[in-house]
Amino acid sequence: MSEEATPSLSQYFGSNAPKEDQFDLTQQLNNLTVDDNQTASNKIEPEVCRIFSETPPGVQSKYTTEAFFDLIGTNARSTVEPNDIISTIGLPVSPEESYSSSRLIVGTEADRRRDAWIPCEKTRQCLIAAATATPGTYFPQRELLTMPGVLLEEELGDAVGEAVALCLGEAEAAQRRALHAGDVTQDERGLRELVQAGAYRAAINLTARLLTIYGQGRGRAGHPSKHSPHSLQLWFTRIALLVKTKFFNIASAEAEPFANLDKPDMYFQFYPDMYGGRLGSMASFSFRLLIGELPMHCGKAKESITRLFNVLATVRQIIDNLKRGQCENGNPMELADGDRSDSMRLWTGREVRVMHSIINCSLVVKDYELAMDLLGQLCDREGAPKQALLSALGRLHLQMGNISGAEVCFKEAEEAKTSSTGVRELVDRGLLSIAQSAFDDGYVYFQRASHLEPTNVMILNNMGVCLLYGGHLKEAIQVLESAISSNPVHALNESLLLNLCTLYDMESSKGRMKKFALLRQISRYQADAPTMILEKLYG
Amino acid sequence: MESEEHLLTLKVMRLTRPTLASPFPVTCDSKDLPGNLLNNALQQDPTSVEGTETLCVGQFLLLPQNPVNIYLGETFSSYICVYSETETAVTNISVKVDLQTISQRISLSSNPPTATLPPEKTVDVVIHHEVKEIGTHILICEVTYQSPNGNTMSFRKFFKIMVMKPLDVKTKFYNAENDDVYLEAQVQNITAGPIYLEKVALDASHLFDVVSLNSNRDGKSIFGATAVLQPQTICQFLYCLVPNEKLASDLKSLSGATNIGKLDIVWRSNLGERGRLQTSQLQRMSPEYGDIRLTAVELPNFVSLEELFTFKCKLINNCERTVELMIYLENVEGIAWCDISGRKLEPLLPMSHLILEFRCIPLLPGLRTIAGIKLLDTFLKRTYTYDELGQVFVIVDKTESIKSM
């Protein structure tokens, strides 16, 4: 089976993702919330007994955490009850519940696999203390708590709309139909609707509203509050979207309280009364990765590299544990063969994903040696997508100027090819020609590729760039404009727009009018656009 | 503005290499709140690469967005676009592009005039020039045309370019005893970004044969596969120059052969942007041989303790007269001579040489320096002392030592 052979990024892309990850959006909505109350009343898993043997069951244990959550004051009681949270933010409870409860039987296995993490020693000690202390006597130190809060003072406006109003007048701006945070249901489902529409700023606004319900809204940073998988998912979504819209400093500042997502209150076992014997990280792996990458966006790529290597070390520890016949966190526990191989696939996939992040970081600081070393390691892995990786290695060589090295990689990529379209090879050859200053040859290669994939925006763009270097400005503009008119949703991309604006600037003083036309297109097809592009359009 | 009075506008864009754009990957598991939405967005981004979406090694060409430095030896390329802003056709348009450096003015383009330029059409000129001087350069673009009313119009635009130094090359020479010359060349990257050294070669003067000592036995570079030079870092190359036979036999011209050759360096940076530099003629310090020269030509590396060994030296008369020499062998610690001291050598003709053989017995084990040879020029009463002719390593032969017990 092909999916067995590829411990790749299939869980991110493509259809051969492990079975239990294939739920549609609405189903996930319920998993997240339902998990909370189900596991609370759940049976205790065997490995838990070892560490938490003294955990007093039932009502009493609630006080262990409630004691300090009372410090928050006012409505601490209601935040403790997961059911209350769900009803407050208006999530649907019933329709797919039957599905969810049937899933529960396999669910704990999938949860354990997905949430597994190995805490640092200090956190581990603290988690043991939390679980073994007499109820009401354990108060973790303040610095061991995660106390996030929304820092962005105001809601983000519709940047495209504002640009339209500024350049094209209020009348045109009034015609714009963009989704706002208030236009959707005030819950996860509404949030996803905004994300799907690409209305990232509106989605960021909605996360702030939803986090307020958790006592983590504006001005709440530095105040203790209770975490749940759901609140952490809101944070993950918020910070991911802040990164996507390039509000890096805000993302970094708001993520700061989470540190490395390794404080005790980021683990299920910190709340034995709520999650029973459930173990592992409450924050998802994607959140962990995102937080590791954050310093890079703020000019501190070296710090990111350190953080990501730490994540990689833990992932590899987990894989070692699995290989040794233990479960992910190192506890001796019998896993069914199928479960173990599923787990191996998940975690080797994550290992690859972390390595990708480290490569990206090393490219930011132009540490080509590290990037090439890691890419080489990825190529050598069993079942690796060799053609794609070797081609990437070739492009990396081109970036740093090693043309002969790039040629070797591209040749090897061609020998490892799996798809028969030939587009990959043609694009590689086009890029190689450009590195050799043969822009006309490059154009021919991209043109041939374009015949095979006429709607491919990247190929059209590259043709346009070759035309410019060959002295054909007008034709270059035509190619880029045709790419937009035939596929506006995808082609109104930041990089393509930057290219087109550069060409307009070259052409004449009428470039301004053409840029306004572009803005009109963006307003029509895009819910959101990067500030940099908008500034370029009316600058 | 000068251009506003004209019917044509002129714009200039420097054509440095494009970059490869890629989106910054933000992904999640399908179990996360955004489900597959972020992954789908990434996959549909035209700047992501199918199959390696989560790697920022793109394939989407992005035109240069920020000014990039230009360095000596690189090629300066520019796009010059003349655009008609009027409703009527303009005739006889000529675009002349010159580059004024500190020392000279270079013509980069003088295309034949364009007969007519209809409204909204352009005249496009792309120029390339390898920069050979450091410092301020001025790009001068001059547009001449005839307006519809028959007047000849002309305007000029100037663009300033600063050419910087890309590399710092430091050299060191060692004149070896055997007349070989070793060259140590340090190439430092003083550009703002990493560079890839595509070629570093020594174009030696015809008097020397070059052996590059920068690859291992398998012919692979000792700097590894990447050989990227980060800003401010230094890469050191080593070459051995062997004087050719004719030169080696003639001490005067060997001593005068101070021109070693030139270093030829080709580097590349972003997406193959190329630069090439050649150093000026590298000069070594001329070795001083004096009138009389004595060098070891045959000397064993290892000798046995208390066993006789021989070595040979070449004695060269480097002056214009015949010399008569006395040879003295002085006692030195650890070595006993087996020869006659205070002996007179045959007269040595100008520019001729003689091979002398010496015999001695090592008395102490370990590394011993051959010393204690003195030559007396009987005419000038001048003494030459040779205290570092070479070294031998004296070993204790085990079988011998057993016998002596």
UniProtKB/TrEMBL annotation, chain A:
Signal peptide location: none
GO CC terms of this entry: Golgi apparatus; TRAPP complex
Protein name in UniProt: Trafficking protein particle complex subunit 12
TrEMBL record, chain B:
Pfam families: TRAPPC13_C, TRAPPC13_M, TRAPPC13_N
Sequence ranges assigned to domain Trafficking protein particle complex subunit 13 N-terminal in this UniProt record: 6-162
Protein's organism: Phyllotreta striolata (Striped flea beetle)
Protein name: Trafficking protein particle complex subunit 13
Trafficking protein particle complex subunit 13 C-terminal domain ranges (all copies): 300-394
Family: Belongs to the TRAPPC13 family.
InterPro entries membership: TRAPPC13, TRAPPC13_C, TRAPPC13_M, TRAPPC13_N
Every Trafficking protein particle complex subunit 13 middle domain range: 167-287
One GO CC term on file: TRAPPIII protein complex
Organism phylogeny: Eukaryota, Metazoa, Ecdysozoa, Arthropoda, Hexapoda
